[in-house]
Amino acid sequence: MAASTSRPLEYLEGLPGTTFYKLYQQPSTALAIFRRMLPDLAKCFVMALLYLKDPLPTADLELWVRSESKKQRDNAISILARLHILSKTRTGDNVLAYMVTNPFASSLRQALVGSEDSQSFGVFSQISGESQVSIADLDDYARQQWEGVMGYMVGTSAFSGQRELNLSKGVKQLLQAGHLVEIRGSRVDITKDGFGFVLQDVNTQVWHILILYVESAEAIGMDSVEVLSFLFLLSSLELGQSYEKKHLTSNQLRTLADLADFGIVYQDTPEATRFYPTRLATTLTSDSSALNNPITGSLTGPAGDSGGSGSGFIIVETNYRLYAYTSSPLQISLISLFTNLKYRFPNLVTGKITRQSVRRAIEIGITAEQIISYLHSHAHPQLRKHNAGHATSNTGGIPPSVLPPTVTDQIRLWQLERDRLRATAGFLFKDFTSLAEYQSPCQYAAEIGVLVWKSDKKRMFFVTRHEQVAAFLRSRNQQ
Amino acid sequence: MNSVDASEHYDLGTTDLAPSLLTIVFDTNPHAWAALNQSLPLSNAVANLLVFINAHLACNYANEVAVVASHSQKAAWLYPSQHETPSTTTADRDGDVAMNGSAPAQTNKYRPFRIVEEQVTKNLKDLMDSTSSGDLRGNTSTMLAGALTLALSHINRRTIAWAEEHGGADLEDAAAEGGGSGGGTGSGAGRHSAANEDERLQSRILIVSVSGSSDSAHQYIPVMNGIFACQRLQIPIDVCKISGDAVFLQQACDATKGVYMALSEPRGLLQYLMMAFLPDQRSRRHLVLPTRVDVDFRAACFCHRRVVDVGYVCSICLSIFCEPPPNNECLTCGTSLDIGDFGGKPALIPRKRKKKKRVNGTSAAGTPMSTPTPGP
Prior knowledge:
- The complex is a heterodimer.
- Chain A is of the alpha+beta class.
- Chain A has 23 helices and 15 strands.
- Helices cover 51% and strands 12% of the residues of chain A.
- In chain A, a hairpin with a 5-residue loop joins strand 2 and strand 3.
- Chain A is globular, with a radius of gyration of 27 Å.
């Protein structure tokens, strides 16, 4: 969860307090932030405090949490403070106390009990449904659009030729503005960030794109708060239902049209009076675990037909062989980034993860962590099942890992092979006239712990900080 | 190189956190609620409970909830509805428009919250409507055992289904093994869940109880069986006791490491629920939870369903009786028991007066010696 929440969280934390104040006016936003951004313990705190009349003294909160879990508590409280959800006040008898801040608290309460007149959770379209779009169609549309974006970045369209989607200019500009691709003339080159991006799971990718979108929205004169709260509204809509557009503001309509290019929402024509959220939108507030469910998984996995069997399609064996049950050119080209592919069958590609292939990937800017998390999030159910079966015989305390530990360790080691140089900024002392003159400051530097390297023969040493050593030298010279 | 050590690569697996399934057993015993009407009317309690359910659903996208009513003559599902499966599609919408009369009501509420709310209130109303005065006359208790069993079977079904979807499919094995090994399952079940606690569906049961203990004593055996099943499956039973005091529920919490709270102020039900009962198993590891220290371990006898402090226990099958069974034959296993002079007072061996006096006379330090310790 940490990996996937971090990006939207970081972005939100950077916003000024007044933006939060405006954001939290909407119940759907409060709910989405509560659900998506907070760790478990923080959720407990918020809910416990939500219906308390008086602020809860800090001492009481500390008593409530076990002393062993101090770290988790502090983490939860700091996240809550950074998102302007929890604030410290003083009660009547001057005791420090926590309370949930107001626009957030009232909005969350409204979300829980239902409010009077806000249209925070969307307005159903009342047109009765011969022309309803089915969920399967929406999934198809979302997958097609999203893979189109991915394919554009990786450049699969060049060799598969089949998915020359008409990506809108806005999409391309957004990808470029986010430094995910570089456009040189007619050629599209994926960047290091771009590689990292395509290897993430879909939910993280969607968030990444949306944050980019919000950032760029400000540049073209849209209110970021309005866009953000519209995104959170989308996340609380229901899949397979159509919603009225007439209640939306002009900026929101503009956002809607842009999001349709990514497959996050669907509309029959740009002029249609209603829109459908796709699964990409409705699962926004789920965390990464919910993405493993078969339906969303089919977005990443082989198209449609085997979607019911589970999300993953990659099997990694302890001998570094990799089997991927997919026919998607996008997935195959992703896998080929860090694997030597050997055979290709109609629904299966096999290959081997080798030192060469991993180094090749690392050279173009993919990290070992990205490879491992990609393999992990697309692991075949068989792999998970196998792992769970062994879990009982596993030594206690260590949670089992889905991928063979030998493989993950080796991929990390292959990356470390390249990290043989480490740069340390610092200061070199040299040209000492005598050995004694060299020795005492060197010893002093070692004592205060700034010494990095020394050579008695050359009478040189290297330190990270020079102030104290210089002062030491000066005081010696004065003597 | 230090960054590759033994622990690091295991962290990745733990990031996938399983959602939790909360099953609420709601005691709808009309007698008890009628008695409570002054302090906490049923409608308020249901409203509070619905907010609590929404809070639970709000915590995670994939969280699930189920509500069982433990009524006076039967246990019934409140959510999810068992009969009308297409309720979430157009049929529901039509029904909804008919009931509310106005469509905009739909927009003010997060859709999953609304579905739960509608179904629970509708099913509860149906349940109340179907209760005749005849049902109530002879019966003041609540069908706790049946509700608990329904909850357990639902949890089991969802757990298996979830495990299948997510590939962590050892639950059937775990259940099979737990059942098969019979007597010594305590350690076996513990070992299973300790290995992949975070990967399976996190289930727990919350019993909102209003009926007193004497009413449910006749269900002692099925309730205890349910509790032991929960213990084996590592499902905590939380009890929110609004009125009365059910002896067995204290034992249920104690056995399954759940939360027990008897509300001193029923009006504050929502706050109690939010603070004590909302955290799921993962959060509970970090929290100090209210439990009962002095658990009432009394049992109900098998012959008259009376709650007894001291009783007779069959030496073969451990059945409990409040008085010697007729013909000195155990009612459960049929063993003929040699009860001997059960009515007689236990023989008291008079203490030697001399010695005691001497001890008292010397010093207080000698007093611990005066308690007789049984020999080996």
